[in-house]
Amino acid sequence: MHQIVVNDITIDVVRKDIKNLHLAVYPPSGRVRIAAPLKVDDEAVRLFAISKLSWIKKNQAKYINQERQSERKFISGESHYFKGQRYILNVVSHTGYPGVRIRNKKYIDLQVKKGYTAMQRENVMTNWYRKSLKEQIPALIEKWQKVIGVEGVQWEVKKMKTKWGTCNREAKRIWLNLELAKKPERCLEYIIVHEIVHILERNHTERFVAIMDKTMPQWREYKKELNQFPLAHEVWSY
């Protein structure tokens, strides 16, 4: 991968065995990436980027202006999200096994031993998010692979910094971002559908969009909703 600069915008260029140019802008800082066929030279990529400048700037502005949470310290009074709902964190001294529970549809009680560090409190919360997300996923995979017509979809959950999900077509395996535990289930479903459809169609082609439209007509609304939620505080890198 190398970079070109167009109108003061740095663009990552990746060459692949593909037929068409593909443009993407990634959160949180609006990084621009163009995937180009092997035989397409930099000048052609540059002209393509120039033709898409207004789209690039629009999407960069969307990410740059998107609300972000301040760094979480996992102390009482902080706001935390779960399944799209905002809760107030309440740290409770607890002599037993650490855990998390929802109380009164308003609070997340984080039960930990006195003296736990911020990192230890975060680990308890992360494990709870991971367990909750893994409980949601199997039924949704089963539902949507039948609708889409793909069998034997495998899945994993992991922390990802630039994508909500990824797909390995050959292995029929998808990875889902742990942050989806904080989003509404309809947004999780959208990402699951998106990645399963990639098993049928690698790129965001007209065929891909047509399958998405047929499978989940409201997918654009869910995508917009997902991208409007506050981004987690992260030390982002690529």
Commentary on this structure:
This protein is globular. Helix content is 37%, strand content 26%. The mean pLDDT is 90. The strands form three sheets. The protein has a four-stranded mixed β-sheet. It has a four-stranded mixed β-sheet with strand order 5-6-8-7, covered by helices on one side. It has a three-stranded mixed β-sheet with strand order 9-11-10, covered by helices on one side. With 238 residues, it is an alpha/beta fold. The chain has six helices and eleven strands. The longest helix is centred in the middle third of the chain and has 31 residues. It folds into two domains: 63 residues, no CATH class; 150 residues, Metalloproteases ("zincins"), catalytic domain (Zincin-like).
Quick take:
The protein has six helices and eleven strands.
Strand order of the largest sheet: 1-2-4-3
Largest sheet: 4 strands, mixed
How many helices in DSSP terms?
6
End-to-end separation in angstroms reads 12 Å
Shape: globular
Count of individual beta strands: 11
Q: How many structural domains?
A: 2
Instruction: Find the CATH superfamily of the largest domain.
Output: Metalloproteases ("zincins"), catalytic domain
- Uncertain segments: none
CATH class of the largest domain equals Alpha Beta
Mean pLDDT: 90
The CATH topology label of the largest domain is Zincin-like
Estimated structural class: alpha/beta
Instruction: Tell me the radius of gyration.
Output: 20 Å
Please report which band the strand proportion falls in: under 5%, 5-15%, 15-25%, 25-35%, 35-45% or over 45%.
25-35%
- The SSE string, one letter per element, is EEEEHHEEEEHEEEHHH
Helix coverage percent: 25-40%
